[in-house]
Write a structure and sequence with these properties.
It is built from 13 helices and 4 strands. The chain is mainly α. The chain is elongated, with a radius of gyration of 32 Å.
């Protein structure tokens, strides 16, 4: 995007600066929205004694604030937008299949990383069937759905697109993936291995957006990733064990295999799973990349429709204005002569 100071000279650097300024404003709004949503959810849950609902309310408030702020920025830029577009959830016939494809990828990569632990006998399970467990399961599922969408909107949604406009898709992927890894360290206390794997995961999810120009696939993958790891296998999700409701698992063994207290997201198996998953992702999104990311082919050059000569056009118009000529059809005689032929001598 470029801006011109006159009719003949453009300044790409000025356009890039404005895009980067817009990206900085979006990031500032995202951070402020996260703090405000957490504070609001804490106040409401403390007031009504709803501690179990606090993460879900915080994620829902965050999504609302993000959508409102991003939409206002688009309005100020005088560009038509909707809540769906700024959240990165375009309405199209394949959205459900994209989400399920992402969920299958997320579940498969977690299984790929957890299977070596199970085969090595490093996993020790404990099952919980206390009253109220089903309610907590439903709350956690809703929380995972809202939280993972909010994370994708921040790191692969509108801010990501603003950064692409400023420095290109490759640079934006690298920058946002590094931010994603550092955020894991700041919020969850990730180790160096956890940060590196988070950066790999950020690259994977950024490629998912670049291949589909939507967050359906990335959201499905992130949701299934967290749900499988935390609720199905009972393992820590980025160091957090609060989502283990039905199953709680203790992983013993070497840290490169189990990830230690941080969970599988700091293990070598997860790094390998991400590399393998990236290859699968590129293969299964070929149709989406063609349908949703390639610009439509527009014919170039000069028009090739030759106009008819003026004399020919005038002749056609004169013929159209004249009444049709009458045609007389004479009957045939039985002997094969025409009725107008002279008699035989």
């Amino acid at each position: 995007m470029s801006y011109a100071s006159d009719s003949t000279t453009t300044h790409p650097r000025t356009g890039r600066t404005l895009q980067l300024a817009r990206f900085a404003a979006v990031i500032a709004w995202s951070v402020s929205s996260r703090l405000l949503s957490a504070s609001s959810a804490r106040g409401i849950t403390n007031r009504f004694n709803m501690e179990a609902w606090r993460p879900l309310l915080s994620a829902l408030f965050l999504l609302f604030l993000l959508a409102v702020g991003f939409l206002l920025l688009e309005i100020l830029a005088r560009r038509p937008a909707s809540f769906r577009s700024v959240l990165g959830l375009p309405k199209r016939p394949t959205w459900g299949r994209e989400w399920l494809t992402g969920a299958a990828l997320g579940w498969g990569m977690v299984v790929f990383a957890v299977l070596p632990m199970a085969l090595a006998g490093s996993l020790h399970f404990t099952f919980w069937t206390e009253p109220g467990t089903l309610r907590l399961v439903v709350i956690n599922l809703l929380t995972f759905a809202a939280e993972t969408l909010a994370i994708e909107v921040i790191f692969r949604g509108y801010p990501f697109r603003c950064l692409i406009d400023g420095i290109g898709s490759t640079g934006a992927t690298v920058v946002m993936s590094i931010f994603f890894g550092l955020a894991q360290a700041a919020i969850n206390g990730a180790s160096l291995a956890g940060i590196l794997i988070a950066i790999l995961m950020g690259i994977f999810l950024s490629v998912a957006w670049l291949r589909t120009h939507g967050l359906w696939l990335a959201w499905g993958m992130h949701f299934a990733w967290n749900t499988s790891m935390g609720m199905l296998f009972g393992l820590p999700v980025s160091g957090n064990v609060g989502s283990s409701v039905l199953v709680q698992t203790i992983a013993t063994g070497r840290r490169w295999l189990t990830g230690g207290r941080y969970g599988p997201e700091a293990s070598w198996g997860m790094a390998i799973a991400l590399f393998a998953g990236l290859i699968v992702l590129i293969r299964v999104t070929r149709d989406y990349a063609w349908n949703y990311t390639h610009a439509p082919i527009v014919a170039g050059g000069y028009p090739m429709e030759a106009q008819p000569p003026a004399a020919h056009t005038a002749m056609e118009q004169s013929q159209q204005n004249r009444p049709p000529a009458l045609v007389q059809i004479l009957p045939s005689s039985p002997e094969g002569r025409s009725a107008g032929d002279p008699p035989d001598a």
